[in-house]
């Protein structure tokens, strides 16, 4: 082959080879989303979504931050240091009535008979055996005027006990069982993991599940942002909601795996995380499940006036 024909052949071969190579497109950059949670299973979906890759799959770079309470996360969202948070619909409804620009973008945990958010506990083998035995007694709550106290009022009313005849005091969950044992308080509404820790020690027993006196099933947690953020980032909000519901479907059927993730983030004993009552998560938004909670909240004075669940939810 002559030098000319050889160079011509090489050039032609190279052109043919290059023609078969697909163009490489840069992957779109992930959008960063600052997400606030509290270190409990009922509000832990963002931990699971981050670890399992559901956020990344939705094109989200999740900056998951832990807060002491839903109220603290709510303040951070309003202040602009967070984009998304999770708390109770009751807190968000109260904020809405005060003119705060909260909007719910996805349903969170749901309270069911199999997955109660907390239980009413008393001293094991103690004198309190029924609702009527609580008259004149003191019940510990982690925070007043929340769903816990609402459930207590509903339970007392159902059992013909005047709610004014039962005292309430704020006690952190981890101190409730010891306070019952000492006699500082007579009963308490205890959530996980403090509930399982106390039951394992044998200090307390369960008197009732007062959640059921709100409704057999109701929305207990909700993911939210501000209306301005939702209006400015509609696609991001939709992708976030999609990731949350994918996480819910996974977490509801993978308790052993999610327990490991929960233990990692909360520093909880892995055995407690695995065996305690696990949260159930909504796999879609069901407005009546939120409306039930809001209506009962109005009935017992936890909301100053009625709120329509649809008014709290982002419109897509």
Provide a concise account of the structure shown.
By secondary structure, this protein is of the alpha/beta class. About 45% of the residues lie in helices and about 20% in strands. Helix 6 (about 145-160) links the parallel strand 7 and strand 8.
Number of domains: 2
Distance between the termini: 68 Å
Number of extended strands: 13
Q: List the total number of helices.
A: 14
Quickly name the level 1 CATH class of the largest domain. Answer: Alpha Beta
Derived structural class = alpha/beta
Q: What portion of residues belong to β-strands?
A: 15-25%
Give the second-level CATH assignment, the architecture of the largest domain.
3-Layer(aba) Sandwich
Spell out the helices and strands N to C.
HEHHEHEHEEEEHEHEHEEEHHHHEHH
Walk me through this protein's architecture:
- Helices cover 43% and strands 19% of the residues.
- By secondary structure, it is of the alpha/beta class.
- The chain folds into 2 domains: 31-111 and 217-312, Periplasmic binding protein-like II (D-Maltodextrin-Binding Protein, domain 2, 3-Layer(aba) Sandwich), CATH 3.40.190.10; 118-213, 3-Layer(aba) Sandwich (D-Maltodextrin-Binding Protein, domain 2), CATH 3.40.190.10.
- The strands form 4 sheets. It has a 5-stranded mixed sheet with strand order 8-7-9-6-10, sandwiched between helices. The chain has a 3-stranded antiparallel sheet with strand order 3-12-4, with helices on both faces.
- Strand 7 (138-141), helix 6 (147-158) and strand 8 form a beta-alpha-beta unit.
- It is globular.
């Amino acid at each position: 082959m002559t030098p000319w024909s050889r160079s011509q052949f090489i050039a032609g071969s190279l052109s043919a080879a290059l023609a078969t190579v697909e163009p490489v497109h840069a992957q779109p950059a992930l959008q960063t989303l600052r997400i606030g949670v509290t270190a409990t299973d009922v509000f832990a979906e963002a931990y699971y979504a981050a670890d399992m890759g559901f956020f990344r799959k939705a094109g989200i770079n999740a900056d998951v931050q832990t807060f002491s309470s839903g109220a603290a996360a709510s303040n951070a969202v309003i202040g602009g240091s967070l984009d998304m948070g999770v708390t109770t619909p009751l807190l968000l409804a109260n904020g809405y009535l005060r003119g705060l620009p909260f909007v719910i973008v996805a349903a969170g945990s749901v309270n069911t008979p199999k997955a109660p958010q907390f239980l009413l506990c008393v001293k094991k083998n103690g004198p309190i055996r029924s609702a009527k035995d609580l008259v004149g007694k003191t019940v510990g709550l982690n925070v007043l005027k929340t769903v816990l106290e609402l459930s207590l009022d509903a339970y007392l009313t159902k059992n013909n006990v005047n709610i004014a005849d039962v005292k309430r005091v704020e006690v952190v969950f981890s101190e409730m069982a010891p306070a019952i044992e000492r006699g500082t308080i007579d009963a308490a509404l205890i959530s996980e993991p403090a509930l399982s820790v106390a039951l394992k020690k044998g200090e307390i027993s369960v008197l009732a599940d007062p959640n059921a006196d709100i409704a057999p099933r109701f929305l207990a947690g909700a993911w939210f942002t501000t209306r301005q953020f939702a209006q400015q980032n509609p696609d991001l909000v939709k992708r976030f909601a999609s990731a949350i519901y994918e996480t819910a479907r996974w977490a509801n059927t993978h308790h052993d795996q999610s327990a490991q993730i929960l233990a990692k983030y909360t520093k909880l004993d892995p055995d407690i995380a695995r065996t305690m009552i696990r949260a159930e998560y909504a796999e879609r938004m069901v407005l009546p499940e939120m409306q039930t909670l809001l209506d009962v909240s109005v009935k017992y004075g936890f909301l100053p006036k009625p709120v329509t669940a649809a008014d709290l939810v982002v419109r897509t």
